[in-house]
Each structure stands twice: as structure tokens, then as C-alpha cells.
Amino acid sequence: MSKDWKTPGVYVQEINAFPNSVVPVATAIPAFIGYTPYATYEGTSSVMKPTRITSMEDFNTFFLNPDPLAKPYLPSYYLTKQKKAPAAGKSYSFNGDLYTIEPDPGTIYYLYNSVAMFFQNGGGVAYIVSLGTYGAATNTPINAGEEMINVNVKLADFQSALQVLKKFEDVTMYVAPESTLLSDAEYSTLIEEMLLQNSDLQTSMTVIDVKGGREPDPQLWVDDITKFRNATRNNGLKYGAAYFPYLNTTAMSIDQVDYTNINGGDVSVLMDILNPATSPNPVAAEIINSIKSGNSLSVRQNNQAFMMASKVYASLLAIILEQINTLPPSGIVAGVFSHVDASRGVWNAPANVSPVGVTNLTMQLNDDDQSGLNVDAVSGKSVNAFRFFPGQGVLLWGARTLDGNSQDWRYINVRRTATMIEQSVKLALRSYVFEANVSTTWNSVKSMLTNFLTNLWKEGALQGSSPDAAFKVEIGLGVTMAPQDVLDGYMRVTILIAIARPAEFIVLSVVQHLAKS
User: Fold this and answer.
1) DSSP category for residue 23
2) Domain, as residue range, for 515
């Protein structure tokens, strides 16, 4: 409408030539929930304050001790001499004696290394929700084969973090690798609450680590899967994706492990191993005595001296490093999600991908093993597997949500694509709030949504040989709205979409026939 101009002259009036458009929301922004090495930045506490980072350098800036000599992660492993091999778990032989090497559960945390593996695998943006710093050591190892529960990891801390995350609509994944350090009952409660929150917010999903994947029993590992399915209950299953087993990674290197990781830093235990009566090593003995007397050398210098003096010491650190680098898969999975979304689109299944920095699995699965994970007729709860294939290495070999029997929400990429479309359209429609609820507005909305969905179809997100076969946008009086809806102030829009689904089972038929002249 022209203005009431009163002065002669030339006036410029700009008119919008293009309609409103739908901008796709970000799809791979995880919130890592857990304990951090340090939880103070510039004198202010970072606890329960979601912090946005884009690299491991950012994490180090916000959550590492500014003291350059402070280690970001110092788990403690205990060497315990055994009279015979334990019934469960691993044992190691040194100089003819059997030892177990098991962690002090109070010193075990997964967040730091999981975030590092997230960025290695293509992660871009993440939020870190610090639950606080590491708790006190128990100074006692777990028994070989025993489930690891860290008494410093509290269910209440995770629950408080979930309440904080309700205000962050851009978070699309919940990742809590340290939830596996809770007791079974608390773990079950937390997973259910995370899935319920995902279901309520409709903006995110939870990447779940199955307990029991750290040291699966070759015979009884199926019991861990059954226990997980029984404990997960049936709420919000389409918003969760579970993974098994744990992964052997390269998150930390050998130069980040030393004698301070052994028995809480007490080097006395090393004397029998590095300087046995049957094969004396006086140099190693001298180093041990020097450390006990408080020499002026740094830990790094003492460690280098040990490495040069004893091959047994180097092999001992390698065993401990392997255990430290055995991680729940959720951080790596979040990185795979981000990489696939960025390179191929959220509508592609995040599977058949070789994760970076993964060297092996805690358990090798075959087709028969995975069949019971991928499809479960009783509970319907699918568990995605990491598999090792000769010549290809470790692959993420599964793309199902926990709602594995659902025809609508069976696949992760279908769930996440639908969430992306829903949230993108929701944000775009905000510009029409309080607009006149008339045909002009309806045509504008339909045009905007049709253009958005057509572009998705061109990129391969939607099935169909034409846009008409891939989606349909309906809006209007007598179509989606009754006269009473207009009187009540409701504008109703219906979108029908055919999201692309993965070819999970490829069937190759081979038939013999006679040769033809």
C-alpha cells in the first residue's frame, strides 16, 4: 500500500520478489553428558552449563586444567598376583607368575576419549554438559570379569543435565558413555528418561551403549543383550539407537601412559615383575628405588628410563593402554552420524562405515550372532553391531532404531530425516503466526513447503520417480480445515512424505540355464 506522500519527487519502494523459504536445520549436534577433567573456565564454574565446541582444542580450553603438567585423564590399574587363572576375565603371565590387571572403578571415565573419537570420526559441532570433575579413587580394583560400576558417577547428575538440555532445541543427539558406569537399575532409569525426553521434545535421539560390551563373555554375552532389552522398557523406542560391543581404539597413545597409572603410582609392585630373582634387572631396580626415594626427575624422564631398561615394562604399559582405549561406541557413532550427514545427507543410513581410530572389537560377531541383535521377535528392540570383516576391518553394520519391528520408524535415517523435516518446517511456519488465515496465506505456505520438499527429493531424501510420487502438501478450507478451525484460529497443514529407506537386505538370485547358439 502506497504511503501518503505530499512532497513531489521520486520515491523508491522495494518489494519482495521471492516467497519465504524453509532452511534445513542442523542434524548432527550431539550433547555429550559426563564428567570432565576440569570444570572451571576463567574463574566460573562450567558444571551443568552446556558449552558449544567445534574441536578438541575447544574442549581442552574449557575443560582441561590450565596447568600444562596436569594429565587430562589418569585411570589407575592394579596388578594383582594370582595363584591360578580367574574363572572370568583375563590374566597375564610375567616371569612365570600369573597376574590380573584390573581398573580401580573410581578412576574410570569415558567422556574425554569419547569426545576425542567423535572429532576424529567427522564430528563438527557438539555441546559438552559437564557433571563435575573426577571423583576420588577407591584404591581397590574390580575382580576379573566383574561389571564395572563407578561410585562417583551419579544418576542424579545425569537427570539434572537432562533438565538443562530441555532449553537447547538445536541438540539432536544425547550421548552419555559414562552411563554404563551406573548400576543396572540406575542405567535402566536413565535410558528410559532420556528416551522419554527425546519423545517429548521431538528434536533429538539417544545413542545408547549396551552394558556388558566391555568384556563380553563368549558364552553368556546374549544374556547381557536380553538384560538390556528387558531394562529398556517400551517408551520412546523410535528415538533411541543401541550399539554393541565396545571398541578398541587409538584414543590415547603409549606416551600418555606411565607408572603413575599402576597401583595409584606405587612403584613397589613393579619390583617382582621387572626385577625377578630368576632374571634380575638391576637397572630397573635402581629406577624403582630412585623413584621411591623421591628423585628430582620428572615422571616423563623416569618413564623413559623404565622403557629403556625393561621390555616387560613396555609390554605392561601396552596392556594397560589397550584397556584404557577400550571405549563404549556412542562417541564414535555420533561422529559417524555427523560425517554421513555432512557428506551424503541425513537421509542416508549411518552404516557400512569404517570408523576412524578403531583397531578391533571386544568381541567378534558373525551373521548368526547378529541375527539375534538386528531382529528380535519378542521385544522388537534392535541392537546395532560393529563387525570385523577380513580385508575391510571394522565396520558399523546396523542402522536400526530400538523400535526395530516398526514399519514406520525401524531405520535410524528415516527417524532422523523426519525430525529434520519436522523441525525445519516448524521454524519456517513461525513467520506465519498471526497472519491472516485466508487462501492467500495458504497458497504461500504450500508453495514454500513444496519448494523445500522438491529440493529434498532432488537430493535423494525422498522416494518416487517424480515429486508428486514423493510427497504431497495439503492445506485449505475443506481440505485440512473446517470452518470452525478458522474461527478458532487454527491453520492446519498436512505433509505426506515417502522417506528413502536403506537396502538392508540385498537378495541376489542366481539361476542356471542352457547355453544358446
Assistant:
1) P
2) 435-517
Cβ 411 vs Cβ 496: under 8 Å: no
CA distances in angstroms from 184 to 179, 180, 266, 302, listed in the order given: 10, 8, 32, 41
Q: Is residue 76 part of a domain?
A: no
Contacts 24+ apart (CB under 8 A), 137-142: 137/76, 137/104, 137/106, 137/107, 137/264, 138/104, 138/105, 138/106, 139/104, 139/106, 139/264, 140/78, 140/104, 141/77, 141/78, 141/80, 141/100, 141/102, 141/103, 141/104, 141/105, 142/102, 142/103, 142/105
C-alpha 289/C-alpha 267 separation (Å) is 9
In a domain, 104, yes or no: no
Collapsing DSSP states into helix, strand and coil, what is residue 377? coil
pLDDT of residue 439: 95
Confidence (pTM): 0.93
Q: Which residues in 345-497 belong to E strands, given as ranges?
A: 358-361, 383-389, 393-397, 471-475, 493-497
Task: Give the closest residue to 171 by CA, choosing from 239, 89, 103.
Answer: 239
Q: How many CB atoms lie within 10 A of CB 416?
A: 27
Q: pLDDT, tens digit, for every residue of 182-234?
A: 999 999 999 999 999 999 999 999 999 999 999 999 889 999 999 999 999 89
- Residue 448 in contact with residue 485, Cβ under 8 Å? no
pLDDT tens sequence across 240-277: 999 999 999 999 999 999 999 999 999 999 998 999 98
Whether 93 and 312 have beta carbons less than 8 Å apart is answered as: no
Lowest pLDDT segment from 16-20, 135-139, 231-235, 405-409: 16-20
What's at 230, amino acid-wise?
Answer: N
Given pLDDT bands bounded at 50, 70 and 90, which one contains residue 2? low
SS3 322: helix
Question: Exposed, middle or buried: residue 366 (CB in 10 Å: 0-12, 13-18, 19+)?
Answer: exposed
**pLDDT averaged over the chain?**
93
Q: Do 394 and 361 lie in a common domain?
A: yes
Let me know if residue 300 belongs to a domain.
yes
The total domain count for the chain is 3
Q: Is residue 371 situated within a structural domain? A: yes
Same domain, 227 and 355: yes
